[in-house]
Write a structure and sequence with these properties.
This protein is an alpha/beta fold. It is built from 9 helices and 15 strands. The chain has 2 domains: 196 residues, 3-Layer(aba) Sandwich (Rossmann fold), CATH 3.40.50; 96 residues, Formyl transferase, C-terminal domain (Methionyl-tRNA Fmet Formyltransferase, Chain A, domain 2). Helix 1 packs parallel to helix 6 and helix 5 runs antiparallel to helix 8. The mean pLDDT is 94. Keywords: Protein biosynthesis, Transferase.
């Protein structure tokens, strides 16, 4: 049986490795084009490309999967099944109709909740206590296809998007291994999604990263975790971007509320930077001032002055 695998970030690598470990015939890998990264804009291949080349697999990198040329290139591979995991583009109907066993997707949420490109981050940002992976048949809509199998995982206060990406990528690969035999045998039981229960997880924007200090301490805590270690949540300090990578909500937050405006620094010492939020204090633990590396708040305060009463979030040029 011939399988074409489609994926891009690190999340997809365990699923590709699972297929090879279980001796499935992966005839090619389709991934996004190399993109410039970092300050030097170095052209960098996606993790799935690096993995595929290390396994000696052919790699296709079309700019637009909807183009006739891209669809034709996949058709020439004569796949029986297409497996995708965080590929990053919606597949056209012409592509979905190529494999006789269909196209399946390893999606990082408990569908129909969090359809879209940022399900893991938004699950954490929204304060969900659990998430998971759904393996589904792909349809023309955005993550609307029938569900085949599901696994659920808890989200703890210690989790960030980074830790959940790793956990879910492994859980997704394991679920793929358990699900494939029934798909190949034609015995998979597909369950339609309840569209009325659907929620969406669009890709994150700069506005999603900006902290609104009038929100609750818990909401900001979740925002910071959901954006770490990728983009990072940010505010402003003296008109410059001030990123926050880790923070903590004191117990009995409401009782810790100070008589101060939202975003006001109440205290700054070795325990962290305490900031007034909409319902109490939030303690900033790991920060990144403009032009500097990420460090603990305690480390930064050894060489910087941050007086009580300083207002964060006063805006500035980015």
């Amino acid at each position: 049986m011939r399988i074409v695998f489609m994926g891009t970030p690190e999340f997809a690598v365990p699923s590709l490795r699972l297929l090879l470990d279980q001796n499935y015939n992966v005839v090619a890998v389709v991934t996004q084009p190399d993109r410039p990264k970092g300050r030097k804009k170095t052209l960098t291949p996606p993790p799935v490309k690096e993995a595929a080349l290390s396994f000696g697999l052919p790699v296709l990198q079309p700019e637009r999967m909807r183009s006739a040329e891209a669809v034709a290139a996949v058709a020439e591979l004569h796949p029986d099944l297409i497996v995708t995991a965080a590929y990053g583009q919606i597949l056209p109907k012409a592509l979905l109709e190529i494999p006789r066993l269909g196209c399946i997707n390893v999606h990082g949420s408990l569908l129909p909740k969090y359809r879209g490109g940022a399900p893991i981050q938004r699950s954490i940002i929204n304060g969900e206590r659990s998430t998971g992976v759904t393996i589904m048949y792909m349809a023309e809509g955005l993550d609307t296809g029938d569900m085949i199998s599901v696994v659920e995982l808890p989200i703890t206060d210690e989790d960030t998007s980074g830790t959940m990406f790793e956990k879910l990528s492994i859980a997704g690969a394991e679920l793929l291994g358990k699900t494939l035999p029934s798909i190949i045998a034609g015995e998979a039981k597909a369950v339609p999604q309840q569209d009325d229960l659907a929620t969406y997880a669009p890709n994150l924007t700069r506005d999603d990263e900006r902290i609104d200090w009038s929100k609750s301490a818990r909401a900001i805590f979740n925002q910071v975790r959901g954006l770490s270690p990728m983009a990072g949540a940010f505010t402003y300090l003296n008109g410059e971007v001030f990123k926050i990578w880790a923070c903590a909500v004191p117990s009995e937050t409401a009782s810790n509320k100070a008589n101060a405006d939202f975003g006001t620094v109440v205290s700054a010492d070795s325990s962290g930077i305490k900031v007034q939020t909409g319902d109490g204090l939030l303690v900033l633990k790991e920060i990144q001032p403009a032009g500097k590396r990420t460090m603990t708040a305690a480390e930064w305060l050894k060489g910087a002055r941050l007086e009580a009463g300083t207002l964060l979030g006063d805006g500035g040029a980015e």
